[in-house]
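Consider this:
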Amino acid sequence: MSQQRPLGAQISHALKNRGVEVIFGIPGVHNIELYRGIEEAGITHVLSRHEQGAGFMADGYARATGKPGVAYVITGPGLCNIMTPMGQAYSDSVPILVISSCLEREHRSLAHGRLHEMLDQEAAAATVCDWSHTAPDARGAYQLIDRAFLEFSTKRPRPKHIQVPIDVLGAMADAAPTPLNPPIAAAVSPSAVAQVFEVLKSAKRPLIVFGGGAVKSDDSVVQAAQLMAATGAVCFTTYAARGLVPADHPLNFGATLGRGASKEMIASADLVITIGSHLAEVDLWRDELGHTAPLVRVDIDPVVLSDWHRAQIPVQADGTAFMAALVAHCAQASHPVAKGWDAAEVSHARTRFRAEVDAERPGIVPIVAAIQAVLPAETTIYSDMTQFAYVGKEVYDLNQP
């Protein structure tokens, strides 16, 4: 029989068994039971000065490692403080699991003047994450943890919030069940691939927009390169997909969708394929992509497939898996590579776009270039919302996504 511990400690052990190595947060009287198991489970804890910092560190950890970021916070102000990074992670599709305490059930519906009392903490968190639920007992907590990790790997990876009443965290509980087996990935529909191939084989000037949903692993880089070679397409990348295609690829426009003149390039394409991008405002800075040709939309999120861009061929699929399937289909069918794009045309546009950036914010482009020249290729760069960062997002070439 497994050793019983307070549920808070068991949750830390359950997370360790599900691959969690680091937890960010701040301990307090309300969530101390969560902390009792961290060291015992062999998890590294990173203490922040403020819960907002814990949330952004969990976000950065997830982006840098590809693993979900996990944070522990207290009831009330602790949760409210981490809601800003949760909202950013929701917008950017970053997998974060926030586990908080909450008041005992009998104190959550009435105003008792309890410490850190809120009208509806669960509903407050739900406004900035994929879902927010209360675990009524150990079984419920374990089920929600497994659901979160399952959805991180099978759906659009957005933050989740689990809250556990203080008294439930302190109650003795058995260990969590063994982790779920990794899900069998749904196969890309062969008919969808064939349909995309049919419109692709007649295109002379195909154009691909790679988004953050096309970035999953090293395989994504390989598949993107093979797709470019198999189709002869040019590409744009969103900011989240920078580095997926080498900056010096002769048919890569780079992360320049926000340039007004990018509409001219997109309008001149006779087929547009977007892979893993919801074509966000902060990528386009306009409502319309600019295409007049048929639009193929590949995304794991059905909400994206039904938006106002109105794809003629919507395909619900993982971006990397779809690229691999389409490349294989092109090879099998001996698809001729399109010749409608000229590398000089792309180079001229990139030079024009860079000049526009320099003219809008004079003096920053040369500094960005100087920094890029001296920093090691493997440098990880973090930016704030500044003019320097806005310039860097367009002109700093990344060597990996």
